[in-house]
Design goal:
11 strands; single chain; 6-stranded mixed β-sheet; 2 domains; globular; alpha+beta; 60s Ribosomal Protein L30, Chain: A; 11 helices
Length: 332
Amino acid sequence: MTDAYAKAGVDQRAADASVAGLVRALAAIKLDRPSAQVPLAGHYASVIKIDERTGIALSADGVGTKLLVAEELGRFDTVGIDCVAMNVNDVICVGAEPLAMLDYIAVRKADPAVCEEIGVGLARGAELAGVEIPGGELAQLGDLVSSVDVSGACFGTVALDAIIDGSTVEPGDVVIGLPSSGIHSNGYTLARSALAGIDLDDDRLGRPLGDVLLEPTEIYVKPVVELLRSEVEVRGLAHITSGGTGNLLRLAGEGGYEIDAPLPVQPIFGLIQERGGVSDAEMEEVFNMGCGFCVIVPAADEDEALALLQAHYPVARRIGRAVEGPRRVQRG
């Protein structure tokens, strides 16, 4: 990660090292039974075998500093959608169908009105994803948090012989991009730093900046599950978050990807880049740049896959392909 994000307060190298430390510590867990984990190193969701045929897919995530924009605007009715989206979009990447979520809300002091607004968003997100939220936790942590934090964990099921991890991707396979709704829920530390000084009611983008920044993260569950139930051979699924299309490298397999026809980039990204003096390379590293999810299918299945996906996202299209060679994503 390059200079602008680090100057804004996010040290990605330190974060990567911290995750590595956590992984090392967790790898030392000793059980009195064989591990039930399905090996999916670096993937979006973890899978635990519950019998010889079925696995439970697990993911946990949160809304992040997008909540500071919600606090400034005094509007919390959409951030629950973001919480659901960030979790269910990861779970579907292993080919699982999400079933339920639990939420965790940490607050300085319980505010019934704020919590109800968050609940409205969680309920809407659950409907869009087709999941239940049977419970959760509200923690009052006045000595620890200054405002509110919203996170959750998602659970889904997947047949063990139907797990999608990218290991079957071959050179020539097609990468289909699904559009994002905007920034989604990654990169807000940099976005807020770059846009500091612009009023949230500024409408130079055609609507108030606050509305643009709070646009909920797109939930891709229903179109992706529909594709998984079709005759299309789905070989890879990638939720495009921080890291941009570089997230394709989280999939198993060899070789790389060439992105030669990216989706249109929303104006908010241009404004962030201009105001923050952010390089093209760093923008691609931090933000989704208009593409929120990628589907990889054989070239022979491209037309059928596009027909299904364009019924939900008319601008969905082939944005690139899998290629032989170094393990990298080449853009341009």
